[in-house]
Specification:
By secondary structure, this protein is of the alpha+beta class. Helix content is 14%, strand content 30%. The chain starts with 7 loop residues before the first strand and ends in a 5-residue tail after the last helix. It comes from Faecalibacterium prausnitzii.
Length: 189
């Protein structure tokens, strides 16, 4: 299949894609599932991963009308890729009609060898980020009325206790177990 557009990663266009491999994996439970229950609820899909081997060159041939030749093009393009990686934002990758959204760059390998001359062969690894949407719902919470008194029960209920005789200052009566123990042995007054 002939590509109508150069392969791109977040706006960065490659001269040629040599190899592209897609990995799709999942976690399957290792414990037994009872007969009659659906196993599909327990299979957890992992993010899709791509490994791309691409070439960028100082004198592009494939997309020469879109990319001008320059003696520093490879260095400029590698720096653009480095900046894209440093942004740490999900990007889209398109190649030969396929499109992958929310891809994060996990690694870039850009070796420079004598054999490559004025080009470089890049290896880029991408992992797809799962982005979920949130939904808000109003939930009416009512406390169950308890016993014959029909008073609220549950966490919203404040207990009221009275001390016999006089009302004590709340600050004076509340203390931690550690503080009470220290007072008992005479460390605090």
């Amino acid at each position: 299949m002939l590509a109508k557009q150069p392969a791109s990663l977040g706006g960065f266009e490659f001269d040629a894609i040599i190899k592209r491999s897609e990995t799709m994996t999942c976690d399957v439970p290792e414990y037994a599932t009872e007969e009659g229950y659906s196993i599909t609820d327990n299979i957890c899909l992992k993010p899709r991963e791509l490994e791309i081997e691409a070439i960028i060159t100082n004198s592009p041939v494939t997309w020469a009308e879109q990319h001008a030749a320059s003696s520093s093009r490879v260095e400029t393009m590698v720096e653009e890729l480095r900046q894209l990686w440093l942004k740490k934002t999900p990007v889209s990758f398109t190649a030969a009609g396929d499109s992958y959204e929310n891809m994060c760059i996990t690694s870039i390998t850009a070796p420079r060898t004598v054999e490559d001359g004025s080009s470089t062969r890049l290896t880029i690894k991408l992992k797809q980020a799962s982005i979920n949407s949130t939904d808000m719902a109003n939930i009416s919470v009512k406390y169950i009325r308890g016993g014959t008194s029909k008073k609220n029960t549950g966490a919203g209920q404040k207990s009221s206790s009275s001390t016999s005789g006089t009302q004590k200052d709340e600050k004076a009566t509340k203390s931690s177990i550690l503080c009470s123990g220290a007072k008992a042995i005479g460390l605090f007054k």
